[in-house]
């Protein structure tokens, strides 16, 4: 019965809201790189209440607690990927050292007031730790020269965690969806993922600008990473002579080359006969 009344009193105090501890903001950087030191801030206003404790959670697991009345006030709980810098952490902030992709997650700060109010407020923010690519996107399959009608088949790839989003541009214009070939990211060591985007299309005069065909591949990871690789190659409006040779060889091998030589011979033959006949009739 007594517990019930106390509970009622807490609820009443909670409802009144006049002087209640309030959490203003929890700041989590959103994105950071492997190896970075990350500060998480918990900005609260006691509004006349007395602080009881501040608890930090990653997901549902607590990893840091600050109890105002305790000595020492700071406690750290082991959690994979969460290395708390105890000295630099305090009542309103937690410093994580050397974050890894394992440190990614939802971080929650929960602040509680002392009796009699026992007000509690909480807020959270997401952290995504990325392993950035060690080099700009890699472009393969580029030829030194393209003729109109040639088939272009290129690949662009980039390795990171999470996988980078890739895009292709032809002469600085985003490539049509129909030209793109999506390959599933390939997992490598340390959870790194290699993403690959293919570009396949028939080179047309409209893709050439003053004898140049420009390919550009961009790699993006959320708002933390951007890089690109550009390759400019020569492009000619004339069809590829080697593919014409190829066609001639094809006709030759099919055995039609001899027949194709006959009509002119026959024509000359006929003409000769006609010429002779004309000469004869003139005599
Ligand atoms: C592009 O990459 C994919 C996947 O790795 C591969 O199967 C394909 O042969 C490559 N294409 C070119 C033109 O290099
Ligand atoms: C792309 O990467 C290269 C080499 O790592 C670097 O020098 C360059 O500054 C990067 N470009 C951008 C836009 O970040």
Automatic annotation (TrEMBL):
Keywords: Signal. Residues 1-20 form the signal peptide. InterPro entries: Ig-like_dom (IPR007110), Ig-like_dom_sf (IPR036179), Ig-like_fold (IPR013783), Ig_sub (IPR003599). The keyword Signal applies. It comes from the Eukaryota. The keyword Cell inner membrane does not apply. Gene3D superfamilies: Immunoglobulins. Residues 35-119, 137-238 form the Ig-like domain. This is Uncharacterized protein LOC108674577.
